[in-house]
Amino acid sequence: MEQAKSARNFSIGDKIFDVCNIIFMIFLIIVTLYPFLNMFALSFNDANDSIRGSIYVWPREWTLRNFEYVFNESNVFYATFISAARTIIGTVISVFCTAMLAYTISRPEYALKKFVAITFIFTMYFSGGLIPSYLLTKELGLLNSFWVYIIPGIIGVFNMIVIRSFIEGLPEGIMESAKIDGAGDFTTFMRIVLPLTVPALATVSLFVAVSQWNSWFDVFLYNSSRPNLSTLQYELMKVLSTSSATTSSGGSAGDAFANAQGNVTAVTPTSVRATMTIVASVPIIMVYPFLQKYFVKGMVVGGVKG
């Protein structure tokens, strides 16, 4: 009798937990998706109509004027190409070099692995600062060049730790077998370690790609005088700065841009900001589903082994 009562109570508790869990997850989904859906609605809604408010997750008056305004700005399409180039090239080089460093530090026969690891981890907590970094970049001849986007961030310490933790979890017998067959360290790394660390590499690739795609401050510091090296994020930042400055100069939010463009297209800082968010977010959103399964696996294994 007591066992039946206990089982009944346990079942009721499970049901209560499931209901609470479902409610919490629905609330979490709403909180996560609403800001993006609101930006989507504002970007596709007529700017003057948006001033009335009450735009939540669906446009009231559909229009493409906001996107026309953003993409009519000079250099946006070429800046998109530069952003894509730095994202692809920077991600490939950074992940490959970080993986090589992680493999080296993970090897038990490497006598200086602890010293090298501590040295890199030290840089996570202390840096030289903005001015020394700028002077070093200048001395290296990276100012006003595309490679200033790639070389300074070629090694990520956190990414190195994730990959190293993953490699340390691999069976040591596989690498020993490769050495018995005459494979050197580079051959072992390329043909054995890299294929087995795909989940960790995918996780790190996503981190690096998002960072490269969203970066604009390095453009401002090192390449602001080179329009041909401007990135999409920097161009969109300039559009937003111009929109805010124009509005604050005394004109209304809608009329200011119509006069500046010399046509009847009217946009507002709010509509431009929303459009910028959509333009900058869509590429990463399109990439993430293909890396999601590797991302989850890589984070779980890296976190447990770390």
Which strand-content bin applies to the residues? under 5%
Reported by name, the CATH topology of the largest domain is MetI-like fold
Overall pLDDT score: 81
The proportion of residues forming helix, as a percent range, comes to over 70%
Looking at the overall shape, the CATH architecture of the largest domain is: Orthogonal Bundle
CATH class type of the largest domain: Mainly Alpha
CATH superfamily of the largest domain: MetI-like
Tally of individual domains: 2
Content-based structural category: mainly alpha
Number of helices: 14
Biggest beta sheet summary = none
Q: How do the helices and strands follow one another from N- to C-terminus?
A: HHHHHHHHHHHHHH
User: What is the approximate shape?
Assistant: globular
- Radius of gyration (CA) equals 26 Å
Give the end-to-end Cα distance, rounded to a whole number of Å: 48 Å
Q: Count of DSSP E strands? A: 0
Low-confidence stretches: 252-256, 258-264, 302-306
Transmembrane segments: 16-37, 76-103, 115-134, 146-167, 188-210, 272-291
Protein name: Putative aldouronate transport system permease protein
Keywords: Cell membrane, Membrane, Transmembrane, Transmembrane helix, Transport
Membrane topology: Multi-pass membrane protein
Structural features:
single chain; 306 residues; mainly alpha
Question: Could you explain the architecture of this structure?
Answer:
The chain crosses the membrane at residues 16-37, 76-103, 115-134, 146-167, 188-210, 272-291. It is found in: Cell membrane. Residues 80-291 form the ABC transmembrane type-1 domain. Its main location: membrane. The chain is built from 14 helices and no strands. The chain folds into two domains: 2-72 and 231-305, no CATH class; 76-222, Orthogonal Bundle (MetI-like fold), CATH 1.10.3720.10. The protein is mostly helical and 306 residues long. Helices cover 74% and strands 0% of the residues.
